[in-house]
From TrEMBL:
Keywords: Activator, DNA-binding, Transcription, Transcription regulation. PROSITE patterns: HTH_LYSR. InterPro entries: LysR_HTH_N, LysR_subst-bd, WH-like_DNA-bd_sf, WH_DNA-bd_sf. It comes from Denitromonas halophila. GO terms for biological process: regulation of DNA-templated transcription initiation. Residues 1-58 form the HTH lysR-type domain. It comes from the Bacteria. SUPFAM superfamilies: Periplasmic binding protein-like II, Winged helix' DNA-binding domain. GO terms for molecular function: DNA binding; DNA-binding transcription factor activity. This is LysR family transcriptional regulator. Belongs to the LysR transcriptional regulatory family. Transmembrane segments: none annotated.
Length: 311
């Protein structure tokens, strides 16, 4: 029996709806249903029943509810006691430029609120370089797009970022293509081939036999997006690339690519469990929760969550 199951059950009873509970908890409805089913299976009894007014607890559910609420209260008190023990230390976190534009500030704010004595050292660099730093034990945690370099890492898939064609608002063609096959004649500004995103794009284009019209290769996201803003070419990027673009809706336009294989997986990578300090473990949990909040409140768009539930 898991605290997550108790939390899902209690919130469902309180709101009288699985869908409303899922929305309130920031998880998929199917996840709430599955965990409640597992709970009922473990207890070998029915806890909830449907009626015209929504979801209601059975007699067994009512009896279970009081104890579940008490258990959750005790768990919250235990967590609060642990948090107030004032964890301290320095934790190094690595983020790629697109990720840092969305996650960097919210993560720092969350850490200052929850763990004011933990100092975060934030490194922004390309995913491949961050992987090398993680192997060199220069980082504790990083959000990466490829785990092939892993040397005793803990790796957790977080989400898939869908890709978008991004161009200046007055650039042609109109509308922007939604298929890779239509990119052949579109001037593109892309990262260099050593960049993980470029490898995703090239692999998808090669599968279709499409040769892109690359007019420039730039590994600086700032410079690349500046070139797009000046109409030098369009680019293929995750939605997060727009995070640092003021007035993006007025100056840029974008269209989501619909082809299979046009997504970039984000991995939450860290040193192995036995190498992480308590401060680093707390930071990893906070990072995961911050990402979940950004996705659920719509601040991180164009993504498919994978494993964002709190653990």
């Amino acid at each position: 029996m898991e605290l997550r199951q108790l939390r899902y059950f209690v919130r469902t009873v309180e709101l009288g709806s699985i869908s409303q509970a899922a929305l309130d908890l920031g998880v998929a409805q199917s996840a709430v249903s599955l965990q409640i089913q597992k709970l009922e299976s473990e207890l070998s009894t029915r806890l909830l029943q449907r009626n015209p007014g929504g979801i209601e607890p059975t007699e067994a559910g009512l009896a279970f509810m009081a104890h579940a609420q008490l258990s959750l209260r005790h768990a919250d008190e235990a967590a609060s006691a642990a948090q107030h023990s004032r964890l301290s230390g320095v934790v190094s976190v690595g983020l790629a430029p697109t990720t840092a534009g969305l996650l960097g500030l919210p993560l720092m704010q969350a850490m200052r609120t929850q763990y004011p004595d933990i100092r975060i050292r934030l490194v922004e660099a390309m995913s491949g370089h961050l992987g090398q730093m993680l192997n060199g034990r220069e980082l504790d945690i990083a959000v990466l797009f490829d785990g092939h370099q892993a040397r005793r890492w803990s790796i957790e898939p977080m989400l898939d970022e869908r890709l978008f064609v991004i161009a200046r608002a007055d650039a042609s063609p109109t509308p922007l293509p939604t298929r890779l096959g239509a990119l052949a004649d579109l001037p593109l500004v892309l990262p260099t081939p050593r960049h993980g995103l470029r490898r995703v794009i090239d692999t998808a284009l090669n599968a279709l036999g499409v040769a892109p019209n690359v007019v420039a290769e730039v590994d600086s996201l700032y410079v690349l997006m500046d070139m797009v803003n000046h109409g030098i070419g369009a680019s293929v990027q995750p939605w997060a690339a727009l995070a640092r673009q003021p007035d993006a809706a007025a100056r840029l336009r974008w269209s989501e690519l619909e082809d299979e294989g046009t997504a970039r997986r984000n991995l939450l990578c860290s040193l192995s469990e036995d190498e992480l300090s308590p401060a680093a473990l707390a930071t990893r949990t906070t990072l995961r929760h911050t990402v979940s909040q950004l996705v659920s409140n719509g601040h991180w768009r164009g993504v498919t969550p994978l494993h964002l539930e709190s653990r």
